[in-house]
Write a structure and sequence with these properties.
- Keywords: Signal.
- With about 80 residues, this protein is mainly alpha-helical.
- About 60% of the residues lie in helices and about 0% in strands.
- It has one domain.
- It starts with a helix and ends in a 21-residue tail after the last helix.
């Protein structure tokens, strides 16, 4: 159970990092989508996945680093 919570938190942190590196119009897409979908619930994986797909989240940082390498345990 603790590993699942850590995975959800890591995913949300990476998703927020991705959202913060996107242009201004897209930067608010994920948090807005997630807040509307999850309705105040923290760690809703289904909403996080759906919003990540809906908000066209980039897969690399501006310097070209793959975002998957930044996730917890992505070494």
């Amino acid at each position: 159970m603790a590993q699942t919570k850590m995975l959800v938190v890591a995913f949300l942190l990476v998703a927020m990092l991705v959202a913060s590196t996107a242009p201004a119009a897209e930067a608010f897409c994920f948090p807005d989508c997630y807040n509307r979908c999850a309705n105040g619930e923290v760690g809703n994986v289904a909403c996080a996945n759906m919003c990540a797909q809906a908000c066209v989240v980039p897969v690399t940082t501006p310097d070209g680093t793959p975002l998957a390498s930044l996730a917890a345990g992505g070494n």
